[in-house]
Structures are given as structure tokens and as C-alpha cells.
Amino acid sequence: MSSHRPSIAADRSQGPVPSQTLGRIGRTAQGIQRRVGDHIGERIRRRRTELGLTQEQLGEVLGVSYQQIQKYETAANRVSAARLYELAQTFDVDVAYFFEGFEDTDTPHALPHGGHNRTSIDLVRNFMALKDDALQTAVSGLLKALRERDAGAGSQPDINS
Question: Would residue 141 count as lying in a domain?
Fold first, then answer.
């Protein structure tokens, strides 16, 4: 636990905790809850994508709608401890996986949506379907080279190639 986190434990000899202190603690708790929710949602999306699952497929396994999966991934809805355990079992990871890389001071990152998810899922599925290790290595090298070229060109396509 962080030492900078406010404590609501009041020294009984000094009377009740002032309301402004409780308000600050409440805002701090809401902030941490949001950051944790965002992080867990990102980890759910990442693992689902790594496994090549769509939101619909994961929803079927868990017995919920794809909209519910989307809400978990965007932290619009909190993930209960029981659901987190079920996700860990489904993804074949420890529950701790969802907290890996979380730092109390992190700022939340926006989650990409739309075509990016579908493209990522298709890319992972197709890559994992390659049986030849040398071919996987070649594809990986090609993608790395394309990424570096794209970053160096400022994401502008070269129409002369």
C-alpha cells in the first residue's frame, strides 16, 4: 500500500474526522477506482485480443452480452471479484494478470475502439494460424519494418512506392 494514501482511521481522542477530509478521501477513492477499472478493462481487452476472441465470443463463454464485455473493457461497468476470477479461468491466467503493470500514479489511457479491434483480432488469428516458425519470424520482421517506416514517415503513406 502507498504511504501517501489518506487514512480514515481517526484518533478517537481527537473527535470525529472532519467532513472536508472525508470528501477528499472520497474523491481519492473514486480516482483510484476509475484508474483500476480502466487498467483492468485494458487488460481484459488485451488478453481477449491475444486469444483471438471477439467480444461476442467472450460474452457467450461468460453468459453475458457483447455489450457487457464492451462495458467491462471501457470501465463503464465494474468487474466483480467473481467475474474477474471467471475471466482469469477463461483466459488461463492468474487473477493477478489483470493488475500487472498497474501503478497508483498512472493516468488512464483511452481505449481504441471500432475497426482497430477487429483488425487486431484478425491479425493475431492469422499470425497464430501460421504453422511455419520461419514464416512467423519473417512476418514479424516485416511488421516491425513497416512500423518503423510508418513512424519515420510521420504516418504519411508513400504514394511513389
Answer: yes
Residues 28 and 74 in one domain: yes
What are the pLDDT digits (tens) for 74-83?
A: 999 999 999 9
Q: Give CA–CA dist 23/96, Å, rounded.
A: 30
Position 126 scores a pLDDT of: 84
Q: Which range of residues forms the domain containing residue 120?
A: 113-155
Same domain, 37 and 96: yes
Residues 73 and 42 both lie in one domain: yes
Handedness of CA 141, 147, 151, 152 (dihedral sign): positive
Are 41 and 111 within 8 A, CB to CB? yes
Secondary structure of 25-84 in the HEC alphabet? Answer: HHHHHHHHHHHHHHHHHHHHHHHHHHCCCCHHHHHHHHCCCHHHHHHHHCCCCCCCHHHH
